[in-house]
Amino acid sequence: MSSLLNSQAVKRPLLASLALPFALLAGQAFADGDGVWKSGENVYQKVCGHCHEHQVGPVITGRQLPPQYISAVVRNGFRAMPAFPASFIDDKALQQVGEYISKSPAPAAKP
Ligand code: HEC
C-alpha cells in the first residue's frame, strides 16, 4: 500500500504540468466561437499554430504534407506531439485543417 501512495505522490505534479497547457489551449480554442470550428485555418491558428508556429513543433506548412498523414498524426499523436480526440477536433474540422496545411504556402522567413 505504501508503494502505491508513493507512486501517486510522484505522478500528481507531472499530471498537473501536462494538464495545464491543454486547459489553456482548450479555453482559447473556443474563445471566439460556440464550440464549432469555423475552418481549417481557424483550427490551425487556434490549436496547431501554438506549437507549429513557435518552434515547439516543426514547420508543417508549405511542405505539401498529405492530409491523410496530418490526420493520422493528430488522432494518434507522434512522439512529442499529443493526440487530439474527435471530442476536441471533429472529423470534419480535422479534414479541413489537413487540407489547409497541405495547400498552405511556406511561412515567410522571419528576419
Ligand atoms: C502541444 C504542441 C503541439 C500542438 C498543439 C500540435 N502539434 Fe503537431 N507536433 C508537435 C511536435 C512537438 C511535433 C514533433 C514530434 C516529434 O518529432 O517528436 C509535431 C509533429 C507534427 C506533425 C509531423 C511533422 C513531420 O515533420 O512529419 C504533423 C503533421 C503535425 N504535428 C500536425 C499537427 C496539427 C495538424 C496540429 C493541430 C491540429 C498540431 N500538430 C498541433 C507539437 C504540437
Task: Jot down its keywords.
binds heme C; metal-binding; Cyt_c-like_dom; mainly alpha; Cytochrome Bc1 Complex, Chain D, domain 2; 111 residues; 58% helix; heme
Structure characterization notes:
- The protein is mainly alpha-helical.
- It is 58% helix and 0% strand.
- Helix 1 packs across helix 2 (40-52), helix 2 packs across helix 4 and helix 3 packs across helix 4 (91-103).
- It has one domain: Cytochrome c-like domain (Cytochrome Bc1 Complex, Chain D, domain 2, Orthogonal Bundle).
- The structure holds heme C.
- Residues 43, 47-48, 50-52, 56-58, 60, 65, 70, 73-74, 78-82, 84, 89, 97, 101 line the site of heme C.
Short recap of the structure:
With 111 residues, this protein is mostly helical.
Largest sheet descriptor:
none
Q: Ligands in the structure? A: heme C
- The CATH architecture would be Orthogonal Bundle
Range of strand content: under 5%
Identify the overall geometry: globular
Structural class, by secondary structure, is mainly alpha
Assigned CATH superfamily: Cytochrome c-like domain
Count of discrete structural domains: 1
Task: Give the total of beta strands.
Answer: 0
Radius of gyration: 17 Å
pLDDT < 50 runs, ≥5 residues: 27-32
Oligomerization category of the chains in this entry: single chain
Q: What distance separates the N and C termini? A: 57 Å
Q: Look up the CATH topology.
A: Cytochrome Bc1 Complex, Chain D, domain 2
Order of helices and strands: HHHH
Helix content: 55-70%
Number of helices: 4
Please tell me the overall pLDDT. 81
Protein name: Cytochrome c
InterPro entries: Cyt_c-like_dom, Cyt_c-like_dom_sf
Domain Cytochrome c: 37-101
Signal peptide: 1-31
